[in-house]
Amino acid sequence: MQNHIIMKKLAIIFFLIIYLISFQCYLGASANGYYSKQIFKREDSTTLEKVDLFKDILDRTHGYPTECGGMLVFTTTSCGEKTANKIFMKLNEYYKLNKNVCENDQMYSLDFNNDYVEGYIQSVKYEDYNIVTVNIIQKSNLYELKNIKSNLDKCIPKEVKKYRYFQYVKAKVENGKVETLNNQIKEILKYRHACNIKTVTLQEGYTNTAYTHRYESIQSNGDLIDFNYAVMKYDMDIYIIMGTPQIMAAY
């Protein structure tokens, strides 16, 4: 269990690195104005957001969730430890959690769990700020993304005006072949006007990136991407794993 948690934390280091670089650019550390304009800019996608892409893919592929997750990242000048504990108290109202604390001079980390939820709240010192990450994964065969986002939104301190939010779903598909399912999702993305779709073949399946114009985007090899999905076969079971802008869990 401990190794499993460590692997999930390693998987999201990528997001923290991106956040650090973006935040530095936002403060004007870079001469290139692109990032400073884009860091917290959301696409004007009111029409696009009427369709829940995660739910649409699950419905069309007849997949059912096994895990749903959300990750919130923001900066604050407030005490990292106090901020983390206030967030935990709020989450504890919804989930009734156990907790375990680990800290040093640069970081305060609070792991939490119960029978169906696991995650952590982490505050890392960076220059004059604390970068706070709240990561939660809920094991359920129900589609819980909206509920998780609602609960995380309530944890954002009032003084925080800018933040990043990432989503994650792992779902099981009872029937079908990995290649066929991967192509089916690709066609769904094209139908929903996604572009920059790229596929990488893995030992147990495929991983794909795309730009759907719906979520916070990052650059990858010169292209904008905001959506990542994988189709994987483990033993006899086939899974769809989706995340924005990239999958935030090990797979």
UniProtKB/TrEMBL annotation:
Look up the domain of life of the source.
Bacteria
Under InterPro entries, the record lists: YwmB-like_sf (IPR036209)
The protein, known as:
TATA-box binding protein
Query: To which species is this protein native?
Result: Clostridium kluyveri (strain NBRC 12016)
